[in-house]
């Protein structure tokens, strides 16, 4: 189940990823023109896919300031049992002893070195999570991640290792660039954020948001984007209204997770949808609340955590479609940005909630919410 895998691999954005490299991430050398035979077809596909993501993000200025093309990577290829087979440095931060530079035939224009001396210790750090921040090579910090045949030689980008790479490295960017919001709270524990309410009144509003955003991103008019964003504001406002937790989780956790995980999911999905031309890529993914029959633990995991990837990414995209500079989300949340942009008063929100009742299939959302709450 793709969603569960993704969430298991997710880190706590902003407050949970200690991955800010104080050194400027710039390549120390340039690719050589001579040919080499240091990489096999799996390695070359890994390099190709990382370059594709770098080029797309850079050329389209998807998030101004996020210079993915310069970020240092240490990529470890593993076999079917998770044992390291080889490893490569992309964008080395120093001259690494024992590293072999790939020729232009294999590097595809990137600055790549084969370096196996630390692949076992890196793999130990990575463990079962799949990635690790701040792995040190020659005194410099690298993002390190595993890749294999099964998640590299794929026909569908939704199953590619590269989705996780860009998503998690964006979290690294958040640590150094996103302003800490003092009221934000992050709850993550072995019981899947047990503090977050899994109750019918909350669920019906969450499900309505998923229905609202289903299929995004796709071409919309400015009027359509505005209407969706207004409905999001109203539903989110109402979700916070019915939240009776002492911690005010819908606001203090939910809005902040939409910012932290939602913006990273936005980056990931934009790459899949437009760099890889994958029409299956969508901000709303993982669980269909109306039809899927997962166990209670999986459902709670989604609605207490995973949903914020989808709603946050969707709101971020709609803001961008309306001309909003989404880098301003480095100091606010998608909800607050949308509410300010559209200048919605509390009276406007109440009127929009009445409109939602009249035009959206809220009975369907209520029926699904009741089923889930009683699981």
Describe this structure in words.
By secondary structure, the protein is of the alpha+beta class. It has 2 domains: 2-177, no CATH class; 200-373, no CATH class. The chain contains 13 helices and 6 strands. It has a 6-stranded mixed β-sheet with strand order 3-4-2-1-6-5, sandwiched between helices. Mean pLDDT is 91; it is low at 1-31 and 188-192.
Mean pLDDT reading: 91
| Biggest sheet character | 6 strands, mixed
- According to DSSP, the number of beta strands is 6
Residues in helix, %: 40-55%
Q: Biggest sheet: strands side by side, in what order?
A: 3-4-2-1-6-5
Number of domains: 2
Structural class: alpha+beta
Strand proportion, as a percent range, falls in: 5-15%
The succession of helices and strands, N to C, reads: HHEEEHEHEEHHHHHHHHH
Give Rg in angstroms. Answer: 21 Å
Distance between the termini: 20 Å
Oligomer: single chain
Judging from the principal axes of the Cα atoms, what is the shape?
A: elongated
Helix count? 13
Poorly predicted sequence stretches spanning 5 or more consecutive residues: 1-31, 188-192
Task: Tell me the layout of helices and strands.
Elements: H1 2-9, H2 41-59, E1 73-78, E2 84-90, E3 100-101, H3 104-107, E4 112-114, H4 119-126, E5 131-137, E6 140-147, H5 149-152, H6 161-177, H7 200-213, H8 222-242, H9 249-275, H10 296-321, H11 334-341, H12 346-359, H13 362-373
Parallel strand pairs: 1-6
Antiparallel strand pairs: 1-2, 2-4, 3-4, 5-6
């Amino acid at each position: 189940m793709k969603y569960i895998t993704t969430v298991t691999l997710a880190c706590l954005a902003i407050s949970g990823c200690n991955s800010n490299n104080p050194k400027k991430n710039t390549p120390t050398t340039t690719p050589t023109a001579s040919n080499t035979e240091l990489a096999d077809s799996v390695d070359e596909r890994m390099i190709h896919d990382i370059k594709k993501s770098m080029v797309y993000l850079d050329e389209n200025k998807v998030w101004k300031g996020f210079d993915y093309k310069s970020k240092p990577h240490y990529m470890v290829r593993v076999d079917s049992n998770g044992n390291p087979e080889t490893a490569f440095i992309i964008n080395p931060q120093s001259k690494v002893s024992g590293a072999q530079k790939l020729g232009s035939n294999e590097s595809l224009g990137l600055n790549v070195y084969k370096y196996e001396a630390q692949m076992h210790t890196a793999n130990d750090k990575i463990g079962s999570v799949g990635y690790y921040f701040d792995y040190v090579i020659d005194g410099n910090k690298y993002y390190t991640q595993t890749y294999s045949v099964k998640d590299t030689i794929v026909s569908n980008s939704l199953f590619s290792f590269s989705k996780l790479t860009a998503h998690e490295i964006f979290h690294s960017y958040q640590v150094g660039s996103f302003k800490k919001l003092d009221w934000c709270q992050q709850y993550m524990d072995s019981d899947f954020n047990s503090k977050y309410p899994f109750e019918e009144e909350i669920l019906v509003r969450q499900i309505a948001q998923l229905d609202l955003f289903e299929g995004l991103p796709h071409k919309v008019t400015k009027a359509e984007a505005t209407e969706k964003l207004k409905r999001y504001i109203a539903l989110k406002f109402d979700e916070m209204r019915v939240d009776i937790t002492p911690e005010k989780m819908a606001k203090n956790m939910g809005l902040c997770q939409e910012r932290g995980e939602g913006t990273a999911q936005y980056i990931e999905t934009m790459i899949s949808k437009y760099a890889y031309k994958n029409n299956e890529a969508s901000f709303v993914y993982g669980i269909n609340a109306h039809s899927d029959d997962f166990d209670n633990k999986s459902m709670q995991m989604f609605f207490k955590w995973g949903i914020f990837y989808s709603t946050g990414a969707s709101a971020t995209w709609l803001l961008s479609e309306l001309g909003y500079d989404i880098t301003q989300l480095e100091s606010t949340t998608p909800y607050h940005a949308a509410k300010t942009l559209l200048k919605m008063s509390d009276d406007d929100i109440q009127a929009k909630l009445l409109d939602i009742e009249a035009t959206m299939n809220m009975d369907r959302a209520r029926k699904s919410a009741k089923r889930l709450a009683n699981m």
